[in-house]
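Reading is simple: each integer encodes one residue's backbone shape. An example follows:

___
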Amino acid sequence: MTEFEIRQLIAKGEDYHLEFKREDENNDDFAKTIVCFANSDGGKILAGVDDDGTIIGIKDIDKFMLRIDDIAYHSCKPPVTILQETGVIDDTRIVIINVPQGIQRPYQCKGKFYIRSSNRCREATREEILRLFQSSESIYYDEIPITNANLEDIDLELFNSFLKDYLNKSVSDINEEEVLSYLKNLFLANKDLIPTVTGILFFGKRPQSFLKEARIICAYIEGDDIAIPPSDKKDINGTIMQIIEDAERFLKIYIKEKHEIRDFEPEVIYEIPMEALREAVVNAIAHRDYTISAPIRILIFTDKIEVHSPGRLPNTVTIESMKVGGAHVLRNPHIYNMLAKFKLVTDLGSGVRRMIKLVKDHSGLDVELIANENEFIVIIPRKKYL
């Protein structure tokens, strides 16, 4: 880096991607900072710069750089690959330690996981650690056992009914051993028969008593501004299949419909195809981040319907790739697998594209997709029938 570039960095001060460190800080502090950058979006450490931006310098550059390489390799688990370079400001030498976002996240030092938060490093929460594991696809949240649940919390009658439809057998043909085997093989329970997140969400007797935010809040607002108090609001709980059915019922109350006679029979035509609305709801359930303590929200306005799904888009997924049906990265593969068995999703990753096409063909209007750090939003414009 040039002296000018270094001065610009120092003038900005410490932030999400930049930290200053003195040479005499201990190895654990350096390891912690390297780990937190590797677990986040990457960053730079300017070594030889005090917290207030004062240039102090490094006495023995070669010795210091070997020390940092040793810290990154031996004190960070797994080892973090870093790139070091030197810089000179007013004849004073410093070291710039470049830490890329790690491809083997999560990283730890001394048994603790750290992430970057604003201009500091802090220990990651349990939920944040799980997200880091998810991002590296080494573990999925939906396969984690719920430790305070047991097999009695699973509605086995409901599960047997599913097996009857799924296996095309009568319940009497499936013995208890087979039932337990299917629970484990479908990742609905672990090897000790403790229900997983997926098991509770699909077949739990009281899913929200274990996963309180695994629900949908529906609201009808007479207007186009969320600041307007809703005229009607419903908190939808239950298993995933019950939630989908109840959300559809709520939507049908407030979307316009007209009746046409076809082949001597009246046919109901909704202003928005129900298949498109169902796709938006199922997509939110399948791909939301269940580690975030927030429900899915369905907001029905006068001019549009919004479906808010908690969590940022999974790795490599973009709005553009979803629009062309090229995105099929699963945050919750076991939830998705169950939805596929209920024939609510396909393995093609084409749901969003199909929803967009259904709305466009039906009303000529365009679906809007918005992604931010906290949620993914589908906005479906309403067609004025009446």
Summary: DSSP finds twelve helices and 15 strands in the chain. Residues 357 and 370 are 17 Å apart (CA to CA).
